[in-house]
Amino acid sequence: MSNETPVIARGLVKRFGSFTAVDHINLEARRGEVVGFLGPNGAGKSTTIRMLCGLLRPTAGQALVAGYDVAQEPEQVRRRIGYMSQKFSLYNDLRVIENIRFFAGMYDVPVSALKERESWVLDMAGLNGRESAVTGTLPGGWKQRLALGCAVLHRPPILFLDEPTSGVDPISRRQFWELIHTMAAEGVTVLVTTHYMDEAEYCNRLVLIFQGRIVASGSPTALKREAMTGELLLVECDLLGTALDVLQQTPDVRDAAVFGSALHVVVSDGRAMIPRIRAALAHQGVMVSKIEPIRPSLEDVFVSLTAAQDNGGRA
Ligand SMILES: Nc1ncnc2c1ncn2[C@@H]1O[C@H](COP(=O)(O)OP(=O)(O)O)[C@@H](O)[C@H]1O
Ligand SMILES: [Mg+2]
Predict the structure, then answer these.
(1) Is the pLDDT at 1 greater than 50, yes or no?
(2) Which residue segments constitute the domains of the chain, with CATH numbers given?
(3) Closest by alpha carbon to 252, among 237, 236, 266?
(4) Between the N and C ends of the chain, which has fewer C-beta atoms within 10 Å?
(5) Per residue in 251-273, pLDDT tens?
């Protein structure tokens, strides 16, 4: 087994006309690592993945996948990766087994290995006994596992998954992540995009992307510990809308946002600010039931980082 880094991107850029969709992305993924690409719609996640898969030519920069340059040798790259595109790539009008055979053919799975790979996919996707079901009639979670199985029929060492769980129920999503971790434990490198914050917690490492740029990266724990500048307070009160307005105008409040039925407020000094926030809210007739320091979630980190970018990031 070679010890080269499976995925390396250096200064990767993609422009569409004058619009820069991916803006100097640097990235590495190690063997067996699950790297999450997290960002809102339009951030540039799919465009990056498609360049790394050798499907879209970078405007500038370089990427090596499985040791091959994606612009110079896209064929070599494609032979060594599995790719699940944002829209499931399955044929809905084909039967389950027909989809598996179609992809086996596309990925040049040797005839001698076909039977074994077919039953592996059926096992993995929990589709034993459903071989002849029409794919389009399957529940979303099963279709998604079948799509994953089809993407890894040729046992690729590197796997790119573009929002593989969007529109899938929570239990199927959990099962799907178990599959991903099983593959990673066997040494497969996984790059996965998502905009679900809860899923981001399943990744070994996260890359936060916003407007084509990486705004932070690190393990979920490290991001929560380091990437937030300031302390986070939970404020429970009535009149959320009024409270939000008040806090956004309170000096030394860096940021305030609604989270469910409460507010998350970023301040530099929690202890000093709690009485001031209480007073400011009381002054506008807002009843406060609780104010306390809390640990930031990934969503807080993301909101805080992207707000910082919006305020001064782009010249
Ligand atoms: N082929 C294309 N031509 C023009 N603009 C594109 C094309 N593909 C993507 N874009 C634009 O690039 C930006 C990033 O898109 P995308 O990579 O799909 O984001 P994400 O996957 O993070 O939602 C979006 O603003 C999108 O409209
Ligand atoms: Mg996308």
Answers:
(1) no
(2) 7-219 (3.40.50.300), 229-295 (3.30.70.100)
(3) 266
(4) C
(5) 999 889 998 899 999 998 888 99
Percent of the chain having pLDDT more than 70?
Answer: 96
Query: pLDDT at position 308, please?
Result: 67
Distance 92 CA to ligand 1 centre (A): 26
Backbone conformation region of residue 24, classed left if phi is above 0, alpha if psi is from -120 to 50, else beta: left
Distance CA 50, CA 57 (A): 9
Task: Find the 56 Cα to ligand 2 centroid distance in Å.
Answer: 14
Indicate which ligand has the atom closest to the C-alpha of 44. Answer: 1
Distance between CA atoms of residues 168 and 177, nearest Å: 12
Q: Which residue among 22, 47, 83 has the greatest number of ligand 1 atoms within 8 angstroms of its CB, and so is best to mutate?
A: 47
Between the two ends of the chain, the Cα-to-Cα distance in Å is 45
Full-model pTM: 0.86
Closest by CA position to 119, among listed 109, 162, 192: 109
Tokens of 18: 């004058």
Residue with CA closest to ligand 1 atom 7: 16
